[in-house]
């Protein structure tokens, strides 16, 4: 999955400090990130030295994000793309090599979105400032503290013997698994039951946790579950949520070997005859 970057080590402790010229800059434009391509097809990300050669405003003010190994990553003050770099869709970059840079690009996007959408206090409307000790935005007027948004959601592989339920959401061509956000007051297991019933009209049992994944494109932390259909297996699609949902035999499941997602891994595990971690 996208976060599996070993032997590289992700360090998300907040360590605000001025960037050096060799530190990495993460630049975003809608759901695109600024990347360069090496001769062997791998990607690289711009440094402050490269960006400052175009405009020194890249330093003013730069925002520390995280580190991978000893390399620090920042959001720039202003963006002036240097020669050799292009804006690439995040969904394309997440498949690129090296994996740790693809992960950095995806993770930085979530923080970029948070900073961009939280410039004013949600309680009193005053401009907020970055806290010096933790990743938070503080209101100097009313004292409200704002922390990065993380939306918990579930990915659900519903099985029926040798069959897996695949769903297609509107505006997407590919089939995937049923997914949904956790509501206030729900457990993850209750979310699994509710989402499958709402979207496919099925009852499920034997709910078992698989693993989790950060999915920064949508501010999510995803929790994957396998479960078995209980009772009648006739699918009743909620067309407000899904375009289609079908049972597919294990050997007929279309599968892409890697796209960085928890959904892809869970589908692959079932196709290969495994439903447990």
What does this structure look like?
This protein is an alpha+beta fold. The protein has three domains: 10-117, Nucleoside Triphosphate Pyrophosphohydrolase, CATH 3.90.79; 118-148, no CATH class; 151-271, Nucleoside Triphosphate Pyrophosphohydrolase, CATH 3.90.79. The protein has helices at residues 48-52, 90-93, 99-117, 188-200, 262-271, and strands spanning 10-11, 24-25, 28-29, 32-37, 43-44, 63-68, 71-75, 85-89, 129-130, 137-138, 145-146, 151-160, 163-168, 178-181, 203-215, 220-230, 244-249. A hairpin with a 6-residue loop joins strand 9 and strand 10. The chain starts with 9 loop residues before the first strand and ends in a 6-residue tail after the last helix. The mean pLDDT is 93.
Mean pLDDT: 93
Which architecture of the largest domain would the CATH scheme give at its second level? Alpha-Beta Complex
Fourth-level CATH superfamily of the largest domain:
Nucleoside Triphosphate Pyrophosphohydrolase
Count of spatially separate domains: 3
What keywords describe this structure?
alpha+beta; Nucleoside Triphosphate Pyrophosphohydrolase; 31% strand; globular
Helix and strand arrangement:
Blueprint: E1 10-11, E2 24-25, E3 28-29, E4 32-37, E5 43-44, H1 48-52, E6 63-68, E7 71-75, E8 85-89, H2 90-93, H3 99-117, E9 129-130, E10 137-138, E11 145-146, E12 151-160, E13 163-168, E14 178-181, H4 188-200, E15 203-215, E16 220-230, E17 244-249, H5 262-271
Parallel strand pairs: 2-7, 12-16
Antiparallel strand pairs: 1-6, 3-4, 4-5, 4-8, 6-7, 9-10, 10-11, 12-13, 12-14, 13-17, 15-16
């Amino acid at each position: 999955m996208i976060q599996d970057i070993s032997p590289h080590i992700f360090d998300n402790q907040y360590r605000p400090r001025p960037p050096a010229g060799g530190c990495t800059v993460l630049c975003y434009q809608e759901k695109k990130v600024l990347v360069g391509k090496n001769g062997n097809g791998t990607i690289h990300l711009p440094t402050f030295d490269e960006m400052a050669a175009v405009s020194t405003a890249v330093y003013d003010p730069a925002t520390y994000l995280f580190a991978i190994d000893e390399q620090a990553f920042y959001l720039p003050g202003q963006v002036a793309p240097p020669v050799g770099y292009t804006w690439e869709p995040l969904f394309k970059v997440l498949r690129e090599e090296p994996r740790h840079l693809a992960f950095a690009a995806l993770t930085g996007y979530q923080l970029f979105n948070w900073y961009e959408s939280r410039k004013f206090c949600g309680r009193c409307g005053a401009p907020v400032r970055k806290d010096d000790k933790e990743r938070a935005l503080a209101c100097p007027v009313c004292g409200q503290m704002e922390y990065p948004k993380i939306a918990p959601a579930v990915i659900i592989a519903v099985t029926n013997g040798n069959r897996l339920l695949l769903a297609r959401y509107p505006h997407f061509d590919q089939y995937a698994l049923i997914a949904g956000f956790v509501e206030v007051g729900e457990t993850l297991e209750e979310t699994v039951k509710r989402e499958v019933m709402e979207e496919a009209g099925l009852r499920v049992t034997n709910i078992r946790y698989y693993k989790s994944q950060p999915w920064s494109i949508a501010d999510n932390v995803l929790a994957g579950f396998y479960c078995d259909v209980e009772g009648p297996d006739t699918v009743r699609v909620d067309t407000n949520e899904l375009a289609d949902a079908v049972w597919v035999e294990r050997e007929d499941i279309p599968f892409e070997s890697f796209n960085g997602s928890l959904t892809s891994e869970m589908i692959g595990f079932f196709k290969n005859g495994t439903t447990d971690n």
